[in-house]
Every structure is written in C-alpha cells, then in structure tokens.
Amino acid sequence: MADQYAVIGNPIGHTKxxxxxxxFAEASGQDMSYxxxxxxxQPPEGFAEAVRxxxxxxxxxxxxxAPFKLQAFSMADECSERARLAxxxxxxxxxxxxxxxxxxxxxxxxxxxxxxxxxxxxxxRVLMLGSGGAVRGALLPFIAAGPRELVLANRxxxxxKALVNEVAADVSLVACGYAELEKMGQFDLVVNATxxxxxxxxxxxxxxxxxxxxxxxxxxxxxxxxxxxxxxxVAGVPVIADGVGMLVEQAAEAFAWWxxxxxxxxxxxxxxxxxxx
Length: 277
Ligand code: NDP
Prior knowledge:
The chain has two domains: about 5-105 and about 245-270, Leucine Dehydrogenase, chain A, domain 1 (Rossmann fold, 3-Layer(aba) Sandwich), CATH 3.40.50; about 105-240, Rossmann fold (3-Layer(aba) Sandwich). The chain has ten helices and twelve strands. It has helices at about 15-30, 45-55, 70-75, 80-85, 105-115, 135-145, 155-165, 225-235, 245-260, 265-270, and strands at about 5-10, 30-40, 60-65, 80, 90-95, 100, 125-130, 150-155, 170-175, 190, 215-220, 240. β1 (about 5-10), α1 (about 15-30) and β2 (about 30-40) form a beta-alpha-beta unit. The protein is globular.
C-alpha cells in the first residue's frame, strides 16, 4: 500500500495541499497518497483522536491547518525550535509511535522571498506587520536570514513586545506600534503577516515605509491586489507578491522532510497562482 499522508483542518474544503503534494509525488515518482481530513472541533479531544486514528491506520505524516495548529503542538513528543517559538505546528511525522512536529511556514516564506523572488534579506531593513501565528512561525527563519534590522509592528503592541522578548537575536530586532513607523524611514522588504486582507482591510501602515527599490509581500493568497499590495504598488514598490509561493514552499519543506526528496516548486506555484491584476 502507498504511504499515507493527510492534511487536517476545519473547514478543509478550501485546502490546496492534496493537489500540491499530489503534483510533487507525481513529479518525483513517490508512491504515496495524500488526503484532506475534516477534524472535529468538538469534543475538545476530537482532534487528538482523529490524529491517533490516522496513525493507527498506518499514516506516516500530516499537515495541520486552522484551527488545530496549537493542539498539534501540545500533542507532539518532539518538536523543532521554530515550532516551539511559534507554539504551533503545521507538519507532523509519525515514527515508532512518536509524533515529531515542525513548523515550515516561516522557512517556506523565506525561501519564496529569497529564492523565487530573488530578494535576499541579508543586510537589509525588513518590516513585518502582525504578531499572530504566522509571525511567530516566521521570526526565527527571518532572523537566520541575517537582515540588518528587523522591525515587527502590531496593533496590540504588548503582544509584539512580548514576542520579541522571547528570542535572543544577533540582529537588531525592534517591536513597535504602527504610529511609530511614520518616523522609521523606508524598508527594503515589507511583509504583511496580518490577517487584515482576509476581510479586505488594510493594516494602518504608512506608505512612507515602502521603497522604490524594494519589495512588498502579502501572506494571504488568491485575493489578487489586496489593499496592502495596492498601497505598495502606488508607492512605487517594484516587486510585489502574495503568499502562494509560501504555501507551495512550506509544502515542499514538509515533502522533503517526509520523503527525503526535494520537489521542484516552480511549476506548482505557476499552476496555483491567481494573477494580482
Ligand atoms: P492570526 O489570527 O494568528 O493573527 C492575526 C494578526 O493580524 C494579529 O497580529 C492581528 O493584530 C492582525 N490583524 C488582524 N486584523 C487586522 C487589521 N485590520 N489591521 C491590523 N492588524 C490586523 O493569523 P495568522 O498569523 O495565522 O495569519 C496571518 C495571515 O497569514 C493570514 O492572512 C493567513 O491567511 C496568512 N497565512 C498564509 C500562509 C501561506 O502559506 N501563504 C500560511 C499561514 C498564514 P492584533 O494582535 O493587534 O489583533
């Protein structure tokens, strides 16, 4: 029987993961199946039971999506440092009865920015908006990319300050509110990791943060030109992108972790891309 993998979430109908992993498996000749599972949100132990049932049926690994990333973290027997800081897990591997957990969202995001968009962060000024799960997952990979300065801005400033206090960084790391961005000048890269775009909203970011030689990245995907990307474009930012590449790159990280084979991502990103205009 083919090795079994799945993504678990609720709702799960929107997920692109079976398509992405199916394309990876086909292109790399891996004998595996990958399905979507709608995990129960009630009773509280329903998620853990669904994971255990998948393991008992011979499952080798799972991706985890909303709203279960925190529950998956609490189920793990082992987890990586970045998953620990995120307090959230988006990939699990089942080995010898143990659950090994990872968070590949941040490395997928960095790879999309640095490799696919050719925007290396080393020595650059980088601004990331938000302080939720996506920012927590991205923080260590962003620090590892070696920016000259990394500024995190959030509406709830106490949240982002607390996050910054959790990490030991050898780069300049600053937490602030949006109003303070007014006097911080331009950034080479501005990343919208808030969920504002999901409701068509714009985080209160001043257009003075954008650079006409820089890049702007929106984590949400498939929403075309979000208010954030529109603001960046009007400000003259030459490189603007949404999070479809991040989605595919985090999947590629999980695939390589499970199968020992790194899949090509370009064709899959192209297939899933909804043009911004
Ligand atoms: P969370 O719910 O954990 O965090 C939401 C964050 O957005 C908080 O910092 C919140 O600020 C901020 N926020 C929400 N609305 C607004 C607004 N109107 N103005 C300013 N800030 C706002 O979300 P996640 O971190 O999980 O997800 C963030 C985004 O990343 C989503 O769009 C999600 O779809 C996307 N994502 C994309 C992935 C991909 O593969 N491309 C993977 C994972 C996430 P406050 O704390 O002040 O309330």
